[in-house]
Amino acid sequence: MATVRVLVLRAPGINCDEETAFAWSMAGAVPEAIHVNRLLETPSLLDRFQILTIPGGFSYGDAIASGRILGQQFAHHLREPIAGFVDRGGCILGICNGFQVLVRAGLVPGPGCDVPVTLMVNDSARYEDRWVRVRAEGSNSIFFDAGEEFEFPVAHGEGKFAVADAAGLAALEKGHHIALRYVGSGDGPVEFPQNPNGSIGAVAGLCDSTGRVLGLMPHPERNLFTTCHPAWTSRDSIESDGPRLFQRAVRHFS
Q: At 234, is the pLDDT very low, low, confident or very high (cuts 50, 70, 90)?
């Protein structure tokens, strides 16, 4: 198997870089943590990697809005290098704050989709830290197959996916940009706490048209072992769902 190299981005306030790097190592990749200042100084560093990951945390203290400052750095100083990275087949994964960064930078839903989206304050108006179930939708994401379900924890204060109207949501669905949705307990609308932030359409993750740029609010790197799950002592069977997502991306390059 060819060596898959992963750039795990570091920046002030990002605090999930080590767990994310460990998850990539478990999946057989070779991660390297690089500070955003190095990437800004030398964007050609991207040429060494197949995958770019923006981990969770509170980049730049989430000043102005979650992910806004780092997202603007991407948009204004790294737009062309990142576009070239994706064009040559590179993958980008943004987790929680990383998802917020991708949205602020316009990388999801991405070029070719003119539907404005945002991530805003949770309906509960508080930080939500809880486990949720999500289902992969009919996107062309390389990270999972349609219909797969995962249990991951969320940990965010600004994770509510919002779009202007029903037409915009329908356009995202038609363009296969909706990658993940929160799963409820019945057939009706997915309500709190299964939808922990009140996301429109229960959207938990978006991808671009290539399927190689993914942003999601839940944290797959926090469910790497059976004992990570709070119900591991009371259920007959617990599957650690996180490795599947990272392994799928690594296999894409094998």
A: confident
